[in-house]
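Homework help thread (please don't just give me the answer)

Our assignment gives two proteins as sequence + structure token strings and asks us to describe the second one. The first is just a warm-up. Here they are:
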Amino acid sequence: MTTTFVTRHSGAVDWARQESHLPLDSVVSGSFDAESVQPGDLVIGTLPAQIAARICERGGRYRHLTLDLPEGLRGVELSAEDMRACHARLEEFHIQRSSVRAGARPADALNVHIVLASGENLPNLIPALARSLKAHRVLILASDAMRDNAKRLQNGFRVAGLAENHVRIRPGCPDHDVPTILAWARRWADDIAAEFPAARLILNLTGGNKLMTIAFLQAFRPCAEIIYCDTGNDRIDYFHPIGQAAERLPVNLLKLRPYLAVQGYQSREETPGSEGIRERGDLTRALVELAPRIPNLLGLLNSAASCYRDARLDRAFVGQPTRSDEKELVDLMVEQGLLNATGIRLAIANETASIYLGGGWLEEWCWLIGKKLEEGESGKRLRVDRWGINLKIDRCDSQTLPRPGQYALNELDAVFIHRNRMLLIECKSGAQVSERGKSQDILNKLETLGKHVGGRLDTKWLLTARRIEPNSQAWQRAIKYQITIVPPQELIKLEDKIIGWMTR
């Protein structure tokens, strides 16, 4: 690190040396090129603001020689003693430009986003989809530790609509030692500015670590707008230009598939047919309304459905109920072709019936609510391509495509995307949640799905048709995992609950 005193006045040099401001290896010069500054260099002088700003941008420090100079001494060559009489002193300034780079951009200028790959990809993707910042090109700067996340982010941009050759990764970004990060960032800032001379450059500093944020802020300030995506408060803040007002983050920028892709997942094309769901709509609503009062019947149906799937057909049946409300339900199931009446027994009719009666009716309830909300009023409307049920998902980085019939890595019972957030719903109609061991597995799975699929913006609900005591181990574990349990008596209120999640 070098100390340079920029002055043509011998008295100033004498004063600085007498006051011990100049180390032995200092440089005294009458002219100065700010582009020669290296991180940590100290420059002393009375320099114009734009030169002092460039010193700071390059990672140097600037100390201004300040004097309380009376009118009569203006333009007079001062001695060291004169300077002391004028209270000469060095004051350190960090000067920051309020403007970006000079030059008018054409109306159709490209928006080039520069992002730092990190463990949270969503805040890097979301602003690039906003109309005011819409990305036409994206450069992902990635450290060695973030190469895999950078690839997921790149795939997320592509699934969101950017052409494959418009999203590039630049690896090798250092993630420690500020001078090293600053030198790397400065080099790429110059290269990017040269590659896109007429573009609007937008540096998203939501990613990276703190040291990277500091260094990239300095390096890109002369050529780029610099933003931060505050997803928690739905806003985009500006580091630079200084004083630029924050923007509200538009809702519904993210569709389901880009959301999954940026998290490292892809969904299969397999989707449940809507015709059967609509035909079973009245039965589904009846099951939801009666769920708090018919736990025994639901348990028997679950058991029979499980036996059918395990090919134990001699046990895939339930007895004729005696209660009137249960009998009406069963009659409707027979009418729908889900149960076959054989004397005093009711047998599971087919594979579709085993899925539905084994708990699929809860997922279908989510589907019916989703379709209704698609037609809801403004602000309470779910957009198409932003929700689904029974989504089978695989890792995007799988070495081979999933084969027909191959089990998916995971299945999402129901998922909704709104306000760039994800609501994950797990549906359980049997006694699994009330059984100690199985409840732990279910809650662990949902907590893991939330972390890896939903990311930091996830909300997790467990819909259950069986009552869970608030003081039970399962309930307490759900609280610990930030999972909301929706009990049987609240299933009928699911639409209002989802609207509440959408609007809060």
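The one we have to describe:
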Amino acid sequence: MAKEQSVEQDFNLNDQRPLAGEVRTYPLGEALFFSPKPLPSARIISGGLGESNQIVDINDTYMDIGQSNHGKAFQVQLIMFCVMLGVIVVALIFLASAYATQDRLGGFFEALLLGLRDEGVVIGTILLIPLFIGWYTIINSSLKKARQKPIRFNRQRREVCYFEEGSQTPTIVPWEEIVSWVSMYKGFTGNAIVSNVTFGIALPDSTGKDYWMFKRPVGIMEEGQRSWEIIRCYMEEESEFWAQKAGDENRQTFDENRRQIKQKFKNGPKPLFAMSMSDPTASYFNMFGYYVFNILCLWKLPYLVSEWDSKISMAKFPSEIDEWSKPLPKEEWAKPSDELRKQKDVAIKHYKSGGNLTNLKLLNAE
């Protein structure tokens, strides 16, 4: 298997420490840095970040960043729909074959039973293979996520706690020392050029000589910028600027969503046929498709799996981190460094005057 390529392979954070707003070009692409120091990447807007499924937990003392259970239900739905659709197609083929041969074999049910006896085991085995692979992927991805604890940002201590992959030993580093970026790598598939965008955080490792990296793919550069602002605003701004944790995917979510769809369909226009991939209430045909899809996905099963995924992914931190995570009296809260305060003032004035992140680096270098 070829080694995965990424812009981060070319990073040299120890010898070439980046600045917020710096853009570095590499052979594989380019990276835009948000820190250090952790400066705003745009003009701050009150209440503009909304909900985020990257937030696992949030309160006045700490915020956990990791992978929530969002998307798990759809993963199960996709696999079960494909498998059940395959079962239906095979069943129709058996029924059609039995109908075509019933005169020669004595009757419809006799022909159907004969077909099942001769071909049923082989066809059943073929259908079980994608079912097994699909459920292996579902379970393995959840277990893998559960083995990696989220990153905990303590705003009162201005520190960050993380666990290196496979380690049960926590590492705590100063908030102002983390490096964050969004990178873009353009690759060639043979038919087209594709862009891969990644949001990343690098934290000094336990030796203090290297960095541990947390990376996740994002759709566009702006999404990476929003991921950074969700973290930075929590650590640096008042609660009115914080993002909120998105609600979990569970069976209550499914019931509430179905109730809203039924109510919207009841109150809206009801054409017999109007195609819409995103709105089940667009027509009777779409509502029929909505129910068929969910029945083939075994109704609430995907959301039951999503609940299980959330349960096993809940972080169990060591006792020393539980102690570290307890609230402090306000007079004991850590304060931003003088350097950060000065640079933040410069950044805010820069944005108010119409500047952007990519030319902020020049101001910070002065």
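TA reply:
I won't write it for you, but here's a hint about the kind of observation we're looking for: The chain has a mean pLDDT of 83.
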